[in-house]
Amino acid sequence: MYIGEVAKRTGLSVKAIRLYEARGLITAPPRQGRYRVYNKSHVEVLLLIVEAKALGATLAELKDALIYNNGTLDWSRVHGFLAEIKNKLLTQQSDILKRIDAIERCISTLDSCPHIQHA
């Protein structure tokens, strides 16, 4: 499929797809005359990039995670990368819950203070 179809399937701009190719995040698709011809695996990797970026991954992190062996993505490395993102998110979740608890304690203290007028 041509780049326009890939853009529709992934929600990425043509410019973004070319950038990811230039940065080595996806393999260079074969050409048919002047046109690049993408396949299903290109779309899968691009969708992975979209999801990883939505989870906060940077292009530099993706570059380290998306390693190709003979043109095939090392999915076990991707698995490890996703596990790292999950662990970071779980740590952030724990930190947020601790902050919420601290705020609740402050609110409780304020609620029990007779000198404060509540809204």
TrEMBL record:
Classification via InterPro entries: DNA-bd_dom_put_sf, MerR-type_HTH_dom, MerR_fam
GO terms, molecular function: DNA binding; DNA-binding transcription factor activity
SMART domains in the cross-refs: HTH_MERR (SM00422)
TM stretches of this protein: none
Keyword DNA-binding: yes
Keyword entries, A-Z: DNA-binding, Repressor, Transcription, Transcription regulation
Pfam families tied to this protein: MerR_1 (PF13411)
Every HTH merR-type domain range: 1-68
Name this polypeptide is given: Transcriptional regulator
